[in-house]
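Q: Convert this sequence to structure tokens.
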Amino acid sequence: MNFDQFSKEYLPKINKHLNDYFAGQDDDIFRIMNYSLNSTGKRLRPLLTLAVLSSAFKTIDKPQIEAAAAVEFVHAYSLVHDDLPEMDNDDRRRGQASVWKRFGVGNAVLAGDGLLTEAFKKLSDLLLPEDMKIKLIYNLSLAAGPFNMVRGQQLDLFGRQKIESVKDLELVHLMKTGALMTYAATAGGILADLSVDKIRQLNIFGANLGIAFQIRDDLDDIQQDKRERKESFPIMIGIDDSKKELEEHKKIAIDALNKIDDFQKKILLDLVEKI
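A:
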């Protein structure tokens, strides 16, 4: 099975769970949260969690799908807040009006807050062993908090004049984009009850997959980034060297996977190649 086949099987299950999550809640805040949570998206992060679980030859049932979907609440929150006028000031998101543009800045802030906090309630409600839930909650908190996503966004917003090298840029993207990819891969290892050493390799895999994903995004958005005077890999080091960086991070991700034994890697290797 390749990643497209895996996605075809599990994406509808992830989407159904997220579409149904706020069903029956009629208050405006839930309507706004649902608008962001269920805008069109590839659901790459929950699919990554489930792909790791499948690669470890573990069964994927309702609790595992619900656990994997929790990361989408954090991802949706980050996009709602990133789009705000005080942040990236984007009017559009995934082909529709951004949350603040449609519902107002105040509602966007509150909807983002609601999505973020609901992710942890969601994990705590899972029908899974308590120690497993604690590990998931801790790792998602680490990814979303001031050591990763929050700090990465702050550097991107206020520290652009301090981004002087590829390493500086990699650090920002490792915290902004790589953190949730790292969490998603790690969460799969936690759900599969893998050893600490194997989860450490998944951590390396996820981090480098996240940076590779961001470089690919930078290459696709080079003209827009030039107009908005944003720092990016191709703007800083050129297209050819950016492609080399992309391949280097893909290689590191693949090397990490290859260090995990008793692991069927085809789906994850296919995902790396798609980037």
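The chain has one domain: 3-274.
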